[in-house]
Amino acid sequence: MRDRLKDVCVINVCSSPGSGKTTLMQETGKRLSKDLNIAVLVGDPETERDAVRMRDVGINALQIVTGGMCHIEAQMILQALDHIDIEGIDLLFIENVGNLLCPSAFDLGEDYRVTLLATTEGDDKPKKYPRMFLTSELMLVSKADLLPYVPFSVDAVTKDAREVNPNLEVITISTLNGDGLDTWCDWLKERVQAKKDQYKALEVK
Question: Which GO terms describe its molecular function (predicted)?
């Protein structure tokens, strides 16, 4: 996959089911549509509902139906790339199957792994599923608008996550009220530009 997407920034987005990945992809697409060309490969055991949701708001999206598998594999990505227009794409999201365990063991050729952790899940997940946070560059604490109503500590989850991975970045977001989304989009734009700069440097050599 890396050979086919040399100048495309690829982000593998992981989380438990229901953490808000698809809604985040929709909001991200809306906010970055003027700056970046975005495509999304969506993994689910069954149905194409999430890809349809994204296409309904104008995002170039293709569903990967894993048929019961709890993760996406690299071969599935290669096959999917034959069925989605990646010409001129700056940023490719891989929305992995909702699972904090299985996807952590599979390198899909991504540039960065981002893990969402919803406030509704509890703040004990980094110690329970350490590999996912160890292999991620960024943790997004999602559904931050619910913080006043759920027993969740951003400080505690950040402390636990950074004990697993000291280099992990953390952004707290809400797709409902928009908190943190500008920071998230800036994070993405910086990495897209870094990938393009890296590709240009290799071309010069």
Answer: GTP binding; GTPase activity; nickel cation binding; zinc ion binding
C-alpha distances out from residue 160 to 34, 61, 114, 165, 169, Å: 37, 34, 17, 9, 13
Q: Strands, E, within 32-168: which ranges?
A: 38-44, 60-65, 91-95, 112-118, 138-142
Return d(Cα 19, Cα 76) in angstroms, integer.
Answer: 23
**50 token code pair:** 């999430």
Sign of the torsion formed by the C-alpha atoms of 92, 58, 65 and 142: positive
Rounded Cα gap, residues 76 and 57, in angstroms? 25
Q: Rounded to whole angstroms, how far apart are CA atoms 75 and 99?
A: 19
pTM for this predicted structure: 0.95
pLDDT of 184 strictly over 90: yes
Task: Give me the domains of the chain, ranges plus CATH numbers.
Answer: 9-183 (3.40.50.300)
SS3 138: strand
C-alpha–C-alpha distance, residues 151 and 16, integer Å: 18
The pairing of strands 91-95 and 112-118 is unpaired
Condensed to tens digits (0 to 9), the pLDDT of residues 19-35 reads 999 999 999 999 999 99
Who contacts 7 (Cβ-Cβ below 8 Å, separation ≥6)?
195, 196, 199
93, 6, 106, 164 alpha-carbon torsion, rounded to 10°: -80
